[in-house]
Automatic annotation (TrEMBL):
This is AB hydrolase-1 domain-containing protein. GO terms for molecular function: carboxylic ester hydrolase activity. Keywords: Signal. Coiled coil: none annotated. It comes from Solemya velesiana gill symbiont. The lineage of its organism: Bacteria, Pseudomonadati, Pseudomonadota, Gammaproteobacteria, sulfur-oxidizing symbionts. Residues 49-289 form the AB hydrolase-1 domain.
Length: 298
């Protein structure tokens, strides 16, 4: 059964790449692109789910493409955005590690905002933002900062958590190096007005011996309590739903951190038994059902 579902998901992705509308918007001097799935001719009546992918990924990765198709089957339109990572008209592929890294962590929230404005310009007045993994934290940060009445709901799919000292421990584990001397070098460059200066070679996020600007390094590694999504959730004024899998080995302690916060009304926690970080196979169907039911689409 799982094999059949996986093959079906692959078919949906291929079909979605052929049928989804590619849309573009200008933002900060570069072109952003996204995939728009219209569930019906009057799709602007909404709701429309605005989807943000995870770390160094893209808008047509399996979880994004499959979820778009499954939502479409259920009558829900969606816009899966491709975070630019500072690249003009970035393609739907994983960000190459050999490319220079110039993007800041909070660039994502500004790009989400730009796409909300695009949807409003199309006549959409009911937007639900959704983010997966790191994109879940970035979507949460956007939701906490916005007071736009068009944004009605936030869905956070396996959003990242961050314990104090996590960055230093993870950097040491991943690269066998101390983070703080490199971070201090980047901070000094930023303080001297040289945030655009590249540090190379440097280990950055998932990429070994790449190059990154001082601004990008500071933005991605400076201690920030809001990198922990359960810390951000209480700051969001609209309804929030966090969807977590019991077998998620990527995000640590999400369910335990969310349980004291979830009141079942303003903040909901939905736990999908057996699902991993990417909600593959039948679990994607579960997520699509949960979103559709929550949005009240019949």
């Amino acid at each position: 059964m799982r094999l059949k579902v996986s093959l079906f998901a692959l078919f949906l992705i291929c079909a979605g790449q052929a049928l989804a509308d590619e849309v573009k918007v200008s933002h900060g001097g570069i072109t952003l692109n996204a995939s728009l799935e219209k569930a019906q001719d009057d799709w602007t009546a909404g709701p429309v789910v605005l989807m943000t992918h995870g770390t160094l990924a893209h808008n047509r990765m399996e979880i994004m493409a499959t979820l778009q198709e499954m939502l479409k089957e259920r009558g829900v339109s969606s816009l899966s955005i491709n975070l630019s990572q500072g690249v003009d008209n970035r393609k739907s592929v994983m960000y190459p590690c050999e490319n220079p890294h110039r993007y800041k962590y909070d660039d994502a929230a500004e790009e989400i905002r730009a796409w909300v404005e695009w949807l409003k310009g199309e006549g959409v007045g009911n937007v639900a933002v959704l983010g997966h993994s790191r994109g879940g934290n970035q979507a949460a940060r956007f939701a906490a900062a916005t007071d736009d009445p068009a944004v009605k709901m936030t869905f956070l799919l396996a959003p990242t958590t961050r314990a104090p000292g996590y960055a230093e421990k993870d950097y040491k584990r991943r690269y066998g190096k101390d983070l703080m001397p490199i971070l201090q070098k980047a901070r000094d460059l930023v303080a001297a007005g040289k945030g655009d200066e590249m540090i190379s070679p440097v280990d950055f996020i998932y990429c070994k011996e790449t190059s990154a600007s001082a601004d990008a390094f500071v933005s991605n590694y400076n201690p920030d309590p809001n990198r922990d999504t359960p810390t951000v959730v209480p700051q969001i004024k609209m309804p929030v739903m966090v969807i977590a899998g019991t077998e998620d080995k990527v995000v640590a302690g999400l369910i335990e951190k969310m349980e004291p916060i979830a009141d079942g009304e303003q903040v909901q926690l939905v736990v999908v038994d057996g699902a991993d970080h990417f909600f593959l196979d039948l679990y994607s169907e579960d997520v699509a059902d949960i979103i559709t039911e929550t949005l009240g689409v019949e």
